[in-house]
Amino acid sequence: MDDPLFGFCRDCLTSQRSAARRCHACGTPRLLRHAELYQLAIAHIDCDAFYAAVEKRDNPELRDKPVIIGGGKRGVVSTACYIARIHGVRSAMPMFKALEACPQAVVVKPDMEKYVKVGREIRLMMLELTPLVEPISIDEAFLDLKGTEKLHRDSPARVLARFAKRIEDEVGITISVGLSYCKFLAKIASDFEKPRGFSVIGEREAVAFLRDKPVTMIWGVGKAFAATLEGNGIRAIGQLQDMDESTLMKAYGLMGQRLYRLSRGLDTRRVEPEGEMKSVSAETTFNTDLSEASDLVPILRSLSEKVSRRLKAGNIAGRTVVLKLKTQDFKSRTRNRQLADPTQLADRIFRTGLHLLEKELDGTKFRLIGIGVSDLSDAARADPADLVDTQATKRAATERAIDRLRTKFGNKAVETGYTFGTGRRESEQ
Predict the structure, then answer these.
(1) Do the annotations mark residue 139 as ligand-binding?
(2) Residue 361: pLDDT band with limits 50, 70, 90
(3) What residues bind Mg(2+), as annotated (predicted)?
(4) pLDDT of 362 strictly over 50
């Protein structure tokens, strides 16, 4: 039987016979060892610098260069490769600051349709390991491999190492894996030793491991709440471990209960496969601030069509339309409206978004606009015939006919009057 303290090699998967620093079979130092290595089955998988990794895969000339995925000079960083991160570039950083930090970086416009396709490919490969896959975003997910040992004839730890190697060989990007007994610590573990990381946090070590960590490591503790805790003299998780549950709940309500439990590594949440997606959206940062309907409406229509394509490709629909705006002073406005039935149609998404947008057109200049849908469901329930608004039914039939043409001849084969001849004045995110 494998000795967990000797572990196995992550490159050749050979079980180790001693505590040597390198694999006795292939010589690599990439060994995985842990006292609970073969007892743990909850994993968090995170693709390393996903968007940038896909672009480097598709363009080998970028491989050794700092790459930033994002909009124009007024946009923000979606993803930065690890070379760019060494220079201080971070996700969500304004593009002008990113280029100040790393002026030699190659900036690549995001290609979300390509990233979604790769993400879906990886998701299908995850489902070959276990049906209990809970996607968190396009490039990360939780997996529960409990009970799969007989199926794979191997431990979850080794199955995950083999999976990471398969992703590199077949998809051409790398992933990092966190393995633990609960979701909270699996997520923390996956952030260690990136890229190509594989870290383990066991149950017996959890309390001691967390003790000296900052409170911001706990889910739900953002900058504002961390400032509140610091105002009360609480900076480290160990301080929470020294407090009883009733004291924390009295001070912070239900959040106090979360602080008590997670600070002790107590997390009973299951991996929920139905939590695949909460929303589908698209947004754009403008090169110059816009305030006029004549400028904003064509862009809204184009984004609505992009959201519609993603819904149709995923065979899903959404019931709530969400409009997002960001003013020139970076203040966000979010407006939403619930529909009577879920929709996949660009026409319904656009018309609902347009109604919300019209209420915001008061001369304010905007640097960003986005449109999306939430309250997702299966497409079978979407867009029933409208017996009252017969024109809506006709528009739906027209849109489906346009979809068939675009499938055959490309997305630009047919354009609506809203978008025809408007050009591209924005930088998509």
Answers:
(1) yes
(2) very high
(3) 46, 139
(4) yes
Q: What is the mean pLDDT of residues 337-349?
A: 91
26 and 38: one domain? Answer: no
Query: Where in the sequence numbering do the catalytic residues fall?
Result: 140
Mean pLDDT across the chain: 88
Looking at the structure, do residues 293 and 414 belong to the same domain, yes or no?
yes
More confident call, 346 vs 72: 346
Confidence of residue 4 (pLDDT cuts 50, 70, 90): very high
pLDDT band at 81 (very low <50, low <70, confident <90, very high): very high
Which CATH number covers residue 384? 3.30.1490.100
Residue 402 has pLDDT above 90, yes or no: no
Triad 366, 369, 372: Cα angle to 5°: 155
Domain count, the chain: 4
Q: Is position 375 annotated in a ligand binding site?
A: no
196 CB neighbour count, 10 Å cutoff: 14
Please answer whether residues 92 and 69 qualify as being in contact, where contact means their C-beta atoms are separated by less than 8 angstroms. Answer: no
CA distance 237 to 13: 36
